[in-house]
Amino acid sequence: MKKMQYVYPFADGDKSMKSLLGGKGANLAEMARIGLPVPPGFVVTTEACNHYLNKGNQLWPDLKSEILENLKSLEEKTGRTFGGAKPLLISVRSGAVVSMPGMMDTVLNLGLNSDTCESLARETGDRRFALDCYRRFIQMFGDVVLKVNHYSFENFITAAREKRKVRTDSELEPSDLEKLIEDYLATVRKESGRDFPQDPNEQLFLAVEAVFSSWNTNRAVVYRRAHRIPDDLGTAVNIQAMVFGNLSDNSGTGVAFTRNPANGEPYLYGEYLLNAQGEDVVAGTRTPNPISELKKELPAVYEQFKAVCEKLEKHYRDMQDIEFTIERGKLYMLQTRTGKRTASAAVRIAVDMVEEGLISTNDALLRVEPSQLEQLMHRRIDPDISLVEAARGLPASPGAASGKVVFNADKAQEMAQSGESVLLVRPETTPDDIHGIIAAQGVLTSRGGMTSHAAVVARGMGKPCVCGCEALRIDLARGRFNIGGEEYEEGEILSIDGLTGQVFFGAVPLIEPQFSDEFYTLLGWADRVRRLKIRANADNPDDAILAIEMGAQGIGLCRTEHMFMAADRIPVVQKMILAGSLEDREAALKELLPMQLEDFKGIFKAMAGKPVTIRLLDPPLHEFLPDKEVLLVELERLNLQGGDPGSISEKEQMLQKVSALSEFNPMLGHRGCRLGLVYPEIYRMQVKAIFLALFELVDEGIEARLLQPEIMIPLVGHREEMERMKVLVDDTARTVFNGSGRELPYSVGTMIELPRACLVADQLAKSAEFFSFGTNDLTQTTLGYSRDDSEGKFLPFYLQQKIIPANPFAELDCEGVGQLVKMGVEKGRQSRPGIKLGICGEHGGDPSSVEFFNDIGLDYVSCSPYRLPIARLAAAHAVLRKNE
Amino acid sequence: MKKMQYVYPFADGDKSMKSLLGGKGANLAEMARIGLPVPPGFVVTTEACNHYLNKGNQLWPDLKSEILENLKSLEEKTGRTFGGAKPLLISVRSGAVVSMPGMMDTVLNLGLNSDTCESLARETGDRRFALDCYRRFIQMFGDVVLKVNHYSFENFITAAREKRKVRTDSELEPSDLEKLIEDYLATVRKESGRDFPQDPNEQLFLAVEAVFSSWNTNRAVVYRRAHRIPDDLGTAVNIQAMVFGNLSDNSGTGVAFTRNPANGEPYLYGEYLLNAQGEDVVAGTRTPNPISELKKELPAVYEQFKAVCEKLEKHYRDMQDIEFTIERGKLYMLQTRTGKRTASAAVRIAVDMVEEGLISTNDALLRVEPSQLEQLMHRRIDPDISLVEAARGLPASPGAASGKVVFNADKAQEMAQSGESVLLVRPETTPDDIHGIIAAQGVLTSRGGMTSHAAVVARGMGKPCVCGCEALRIDLARGRFNIGGEEYEEGEILSIDGLTGQVFFGAVPLIEPQFSDEFYTLLGWADRVRRLKIRANADNPDDAILAIEMGAQGIGLCRTEHMFMAADRIPVVQKMILAGSLEDREAALKELLPMQLEDFKGIFKAMAGKPVTIRLLDPPLHEFLPDKEVLLVELERLNLQGGDPGSISEKEQMLQKVSALSEFNPMLGHRGCRLGLVYPEIYRMQVKAIFLALFELVDEGIEARLLQPEIMIPLVGHREEMERMKVLVDDTARTVFNGSGRELPYSVGTMIELPRACLVADQLAKSAEFFSFGTNDLTQTTLGYSRDDSEGKFLPFYLQQKIIPANPFAELDCEGVGQLVKMGVEKGRQSRPGIKLGICGEHGGDPSSVEFFNDIGLDYVSCSPYRLPIARLAAAHAVLRKNE
């Protein structure tokens, strides 16, 4: 049996080996393979990690030998010796299969000890440099591997700077560094209970173990859960010869994107620091320079770097996120990966790359995640309102947000769960804050740049973020912050604009989003590819107009009850409900008819030439009456205070009616077609209003054939219900037609939103001309989850505990609810082959659900207007994925 | 093409031709065929009826000719002429396929007119008789065919009797009858606008049309709906030569059952009148004599009749319901059919007939309708007492009860404990009233339907209940109630009959249910035939003992929450719910443990040797707390009246907790295993109590192998839920086992009560060792019907309008819910072939549902103890029907 290979030199890998070598390792190997300057190194595989985690968290002898063998060839390649007189120093970095920024740990300068530090000093002739490396190594290794609190180190170095009265570490003298090393070593001894390991091999194995173990830190687990990354992928470990950005003034380090990750503009974007190591860019003690300045400082290196970037983009056919180091004027590539980008950047880059001939239109479609488009749909601060800027930071992630200032991620989560809008405000964020960022409307930090943790994570989530707002001073201990010399309490409301970096006091007016040309181009490509038609849920003329703008091919759900809720209508609706006789009820309905008629006219007019599905009244009648508990309390008060007998009696009557109509489980109560059967006069009025509206439009000159009304009966579960409701609609239509002496085409169908409706869909399709699956209610009944209750109660717990994989109201439960939908589709088509099939639950705007609906052969999905672009793109993805 | 035959002489028919000739016609033909004395005649078929009803309600020429041809041979057989000098008179009677007593119409003495009346007078030498026949004919034909109000006739005859000062019609003089005939003919002319038809053929055709048309009278339609008789069966018409019971003193007419239809005793049972026609027996003006007296009055006829009855019973192998006429000492049979009987008679007759060798035991089983047994299971009002009904509600749970009216559950318990009989009277009941229901003799509510809380709980306990008695108005505040405009104090004695829904003032004499030897014999035969096992739903030791008596083979559902509801436990339960910390909750649970333990001990002891399925806590926690609306009102009152700050703050805290826990749709809320996952300590306590109880029983000497605990997890919908709950049970068991140093076998399964559970039953069966279908909740979610709401709201309307065929909470909706159950069965067996499958919804005691459960292959059904005999018999029927 061939022995399992757990270690691969870069020379033996390429970019296709991501699952074995991790993303970073595979790309390092690939860059080496295509001739780019990469320091030599090797990768310990993800399989080794899984083996380690499953087998008692111990490195085993064979693995150690394999690592040491590869170390040996590294020594040969570099002409250096690990722990020797011309010491080989190495970096040890994690590298998961899927990029998990900030989640895993890194150790640089490994191999240093008191001896090799002196050797390095001798070799480079720069004792300060060697001591600085050693100081950094002890600090990083102490923190990451030995779990020494990093503040313990920070305190010493801060004290050293203060004592020397300098601003940066690079201004410290070698003697300061010697003292610092002494203090660091003592700290390690004190806090970890052991001496700092001087044996480089021991350092190496401890570091590898630390990388492996970090796969299961809490923050890594949380990140994987948030991004649905499987737990069994494991991480690789990249071991690479060190190059030094802190060796001289023509050394340096930096990060760059091949295009602007915020807006997609096709220019190099990034920042660098000379005479620095990687962590200095992130730490924020020195402000990095924009990459364009490198052209002046080190023009040759800049040109070389630019060429490398172009080569990488052509090679990977996508925008790259690159890390590099310059050692004494020589460029080294330390990482490349597909760059994260905002939605607008994603759209711009995808469309540009098609124009540049790099990718096909189908590639471009797949480059943009449909759910990402949601970012573009966010409202922005109204530019016409003049606001007084309170402060300004870096525009780290576009979009605007308002909320109460909260300093703590746990508290942010808690307040958000209880329904408050919060803004997470921190000096800087760490991976421990992830849940707070998820919960917040936006993120504001006082430190850190465009590539700081907060910026990267917020952009990934499409969450507004302003970084490095130095005018903001945060006093965590006292729960206060200071802007412009004024103090404010935590809880104050602030607004941020992630597009401009501005910060404002109070909540600010937001406006509707605007879309780029590339956005429309991409969606046009999506429309050519997709099979599913896309409709909108719209209840009024304004929404219908918006729906058309967003590309709707019809209205899939017009909820007529929303027309009842307007302030001027509710008294008439209540009169209708409280009516003591059929005559009284019909009189009230007569008043409502012209109101509904006007709404219908506006909607049909906006949608002329496209189908409009109108759902007849659905909610239980008590929803239109005052709240029972409020009435009870008011009545008790009136009685005790000897209130006016007239108003007592009025309230008593209302209470009686409310009590008679109230329900223990309104979701399963007297609603939908159950209302239409018991009170047919209500549905008759609605149907009449629909046809009268249509005739008025015809009179106004709209061609009759352009009007495509689809009348939808809600909550049908039995064949008889559908048949009788069809008769009611047909009879009412006939009466209106006879009255006007002309006819109009229309169709009658039903909303499939009960398990029973799916089970007997063949019977329903005998009289229903279309089905629209109401997956919101179908989810409630199939799972037995009341949406009103579960989202605030057990559902967050269920999600957190992974009892269910996703919120079934956001993402269709394909396994359960989906099975019923599929059954409904098959049975419906069985008895009426040409039946029109769609869905109008909120899942119509969820990408993974849209893919399911495409695959089971629905004709259309319908969603809220602002989710239409998502649905259009998702429907295109569904086709492309199916053909993959 | 052979012409369709629409008319059959009796000689061409037999009892197998019921669907064509109707029940009456087929049996008349059969009796003629086996040589019994039947006046000759013929039958116009049900097909003729349907043809008539479908083709414009007109007799067509071919049918008329066919009738006249048969009339011709009747003339030949009898030597008489229709409308002639020796006139043939005939009876025209309806005869549906299924017996529909009183639903259809009959005309006697047809063929009489002014001429044939005189002929008949001459022929019989009895002018009074002839005039009496003519008078009867005009009255009957006028009423039934010409739709003349029958009071118009009654008024004349009453006046005539009064004028002559006699009590019966037979005492009227011929001159009185002549005058009466004159008045009758004038009345017909005046009210129907036409002369009374004198042409016998016209009389005949009009009568046939009237019978056909009566198929669609309102009362017939209502009867068919109530008894689920298809509308397209149609009725036959029986045309038969008249024989006259009113011809002389040795003539007469009567009805008889071959056995006692009330108790099944094997003796002739019936009554007769001499010198009378059929309608006189019914009219009540003369009191008929018991059949036994015929032996003295006309001994030869009696003996002949007795022999005929014996022959008929042997021939039909069932108890017969017979009509006969005696004409001048000669016996004629006019009808025989299977006799309707009470449940106890049905049981007695079936068992007797097996002993008499008439039928097999399987026949006997099929002779008793399972649902009929319900009559036998409860205390009843002494049927010999005549009572005046005070009000009437829904017959929610059979049995009768008397007691003092009490509005409050605590008070009911208190009074019952001090030995008083009480009736719990409430607008509606909630789980908080359980102890009151237990304590009361019966329950009466003014609101709620057949499956309201009160009804379900009462049926479960076998306690009489009348629901939704709207004539009863309860004023809780003033401690009074109102019936029929009169006010009464709490404490008044009322009686209820849960079989009829009747309410009476005062105590009424009750008789205990007693089971006859035949009852036990029959159920013993059922047990030998059935394949389904029968278990009981029982929540406490008393119910378990009762279950055993009623033949339970195990407990299919022990609801542990009922153990929480007892008055002495609810404060501890509330303490547990209100606990601010896990420690406090566990402390309260520790108090509850010994209470649950005791209950479990009692149940397991009673059921030793049989399986017991214990369902862990199911209802949402707010069900154990005070009502929110009551708290709100109390708090408002306390605040306004300046109440004690301590108790205000206490109430405020309670209100806060109740509000936090309250739900819009508790049915779809935080209950079932969702509780067990969020509060695992509750389930752990319950599981611990189960095993500690079992070990105590082992210590008391019960063999461990006789104890068969099955622990059931409620409301599972996802695989993860089942897997985690299984781990919780196993871990808890392991802890108890380790603590006691020994083990016990047990199994863990789930209640399948959500559509999703059926859809993913294959996944659930991976960890569930048994499924018990909770068809109550499954019906609620599959149909989207809240049981608490729909019964009082749209469901009665739906049933009345035939939108749905039956109440889905009483009879399983096989088409919808049944489809899911079947899917659950198939998928469950697919991944665990030996999985134990049962149901424990109320459908377990419904015969048609039991048949479905048998057919889809369940292992057992479970129902409330008092429904066990029904389920046992229904399960036997299911097997016999399948083999038919």
Q: What can you tell me about this protein's structure?
A:
- Two copies of one chain form a homodimer.
- By secondary structure, chain A is α/β, with parallel strands linked by helices.
- Helices cover 46% and strands 17% of the residues of chain A.
- In chain A, strands 12-22-21-14-15-16-17-13 form an eight-stranded mixed beta sheet.
- In chain A, a hairpin with a 4-residue loop joins strand 18 (472-475) and strand 19 (480-483).
- In chain A, helix 6 runs antiparallel to helix 7 (174-192), helix 21 runs parallel beside helix 25 and helix 33 (847-855) crosses helix 34 (868-883).
- Chain A is elongated, with a radius of gyration of 33 Å.
- Chains A and B meet through helix 22, helix 24, helix 26, helix 27 and helix 29 of A and helix 23, helix 25, helix 27, helix 28 and helix 30 of B.
Summarize the entry for a quick read:
The structure is a homodimer of 884-residue chains. Chain A is an alpha/beta fold and 884 residues long.
Oligomeric state of the chains present here: homodimer
Q: Could you tell me which chain pair has the largest interface and how many residues each side has? A: A-B, 56 and 56 residues
Describe the main β-sheet of chain A briefly: 8 strands, mixed
Rg on CA atoms of chain A, Å:
33 Å
Total strand count of chain A, please?
31
**Average pLDDT value of chain A?**
91
Low-confidence stretches of chain A: none
Distance linking N and C termini of chain A: 37 Å
Structural class of chain A: alpha/beta
Strand order of the largest sheet of chain A: 12-22-21-14-15-16-17-13
Put simply, the count of helices of chain A is: 34
Assign a percent range to the helix content of chain A: 40-55%
What is the strand content of chain A? 15-25%
